[in-house]
Amino acid sequence: MARILGARAFDLGAPLYDWMTAQEIWRDHIRGLARHFPEGAGGDGQPGRRLIDLGTGPAVSAIALAEADPLLRVVGLDYSPGMLARARPRVSASPARERIELVQGDARALPFPDGSFDAATGHSFLYLVPERGKVLSEVRRVLRPGGRLVLLEPRRGGRFAPVEALSRDPRFALSMMLWRLASGVEGRFTAQGLVALVEGAGLRVIGCEETLSGLGWRLAAERVE
Ligand SMILES: C[S@@+](CC[C@H](N)C(=O)[O-])C[C@H]1O[C@@H](n2cnc3c(N)ncnc32)[C@H](O)[C@@H]1O
Questions:
Q1: I want to staple 161 with a disulfide (CB 3.0 to 4.6 A). Which of 101, 143, 151, 213 is the partner?
Q2: Is this prediction's pTM over 0.90?
Q3: If you measure from the C-alpha of residue 147 to the centroid of ligand 1, how many angstroms do you get, rounded to a whole number?
Q4: Centre of ligand 1 from the C-alpha of residue 1, in Å
Q5: How far, rounded to the nearest angstrom, does the alpha carbon of residue 140 sit from its chain's CA centroid?
Q6: Cβ(106) to ligand 1 under 6 A?
Q7: How high is the pLDDT of residue 81?
Q8: Under CATH, which number does the domain 7-37+45-222 receive?
Q9: How many other CB atoms are found less than 10 A from the CB of residue 153?
């Protein structure tokens, strides 16, 4: 399958992407991922839970999650220096800045020890990576037993939904249009395909539901042991 979006493309697209996604409907959707995080305290003995946000981009996702939970500690990981350059001032301006760390790295080889996170998120991320199995086995490795992965991914066969029912913000309509275009090239998922991929990496899928008016899937999975 063709792959056009590498780190350089994200560097170039970072200003547009940042502008397009720094809006309430996007943040609200990201916050929806948190209801699948594991209950209770974190596994590392520190207060609150520790999350890795894979492909954090301009950190709208990392910040939305950190601001929604005053105890959550978030690592925002991305391989694009251009995206991280947009992320830094955003994080500095956030009241949650002390709990957000930005790391440049590749999700196919995560620079973290085994079992060091309670949760991992990928909001519009996995479909962009050619070696998806490699990313998922890295996620399994860095999650503690009982830790959760929550993904938002584009849906194959999803109709072009009336997104104005979700938001009248033209930036949102544009972001959905570009998401459909990019995922048309990089690959969309059926529910069965996405579940099989995640289970193939040794994670147990808890649920996979339609989201964004049927354009996407929200999948939650757990590391059992
Ligand atoms: C569509 S953006 C999503 C940004 C953010 N999660 C959001 O929802 O607004 C995808 C991000 O994944 C990053 N990315 C793609 N492949 C990656 C990889 N192998 N390792 C780390 N980051 C990657 C890109 O640089 C880009 O910033």
A1: 213
A2: yes
A3: 21
A4: 19
A5: 15
A6: yes
A7: 97
A8: 3.40.50.150
A9: 27
